[in-house]
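Deliverable D2.4 — example input (structure tokens):
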């Protein structure tokens, strides 16, 4: 495993694709910050956000539906041409196994006449259990891993995956931040109490959460209106 270089943005490599999967329940500014940092560090032409339909490694189902979570991702990445939404897992029946996703994306690149150059973006927390995922060897055969650091996690332990894929270290890069301390569970808790989540999520996502009464412990209470963003200096309302 090697750290990504820390000398400024890497040159963009044509066709290089970052795959950023997650529950995104909801997507927040931390997700966007680490995705953009990975784009710069790895020279990614695009970052594909892939909301999970049925997360296989979670004991509890996401609070928001797959349709709502995909809609919030779409709103969050609007205006950033290097970011795109994939509904591949939302539209797939059954558990959203990452190996199925990366193999499908690699096959799509080949079908389009391109040599796949895929990077799978993975938090340090998720990587700690990566060796127990379905077919991690096949994931590493399709793409390289870029590990996004978390302050509460130390340097990644490569021994578990190294016992499955001896050359795994050559396919893994550790990114250097940013360390954004945001928690989707905290955001859900605030929204559940009717508190504002603005400045924790993009403004369009905050409005969507309110308009659809997402995460409310008492949805019958109806949406709690937000203050107009245009009243904030420099703010720009979204449709």
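Example output (designed residues):
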């Amino acid at each position: 495993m090697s750290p990504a270089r820390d000398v400024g943005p890497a040159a963009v490599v044509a066709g290089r694709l970052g795959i950023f999967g997650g529950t995104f329940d909801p997507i927040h500014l931390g997700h966007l910050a680490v995705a953009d940092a990975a784009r710069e560090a790895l020279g990614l032409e695009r970052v594909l956000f892939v909301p999970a339909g049925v997360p296989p490694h979670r004991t509890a189902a996401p609070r928001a539906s797959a349709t709502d979570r995909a809609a919030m991702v779409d709103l969050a990445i609007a205006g950033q041409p290097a970011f795109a939404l994939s509904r591949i897992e939302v539209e797939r029946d059954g558990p959203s196994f990452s190996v199925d996703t990366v193999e499908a994306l690699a096959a799509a690149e080949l079908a389009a006449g391109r040599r796949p150059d895929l990077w799978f973006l993975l938090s340090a927390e998720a990587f700690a259990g990566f060796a127990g995922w379905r077919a991690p060897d096949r994931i590493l055969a399709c793409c390289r891993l870029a590990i996004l650091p978390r302050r509460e996690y130390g340097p990644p332990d490569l021994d578990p995956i190294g016992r499955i894929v001896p050359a795994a270290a050559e396919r893994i890069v550790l990114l250097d931040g940013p360390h954004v301390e945001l928690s989707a569970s905290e955001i859900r808790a605030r929204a559940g109490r009717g508190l504002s989540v603005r400045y924790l999520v993009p403004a369009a996502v905050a409005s969507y959460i309110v308009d659809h009464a997402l995460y409310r412990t008492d949805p019958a209470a109806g949406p709690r209106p937000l203050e107009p963003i245009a009243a904030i200096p420099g703010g720009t309302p979204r449709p």
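Strands lie at 2-3, 16-22, 46-51, 83-85, 117-123, 144-148, 172-174.
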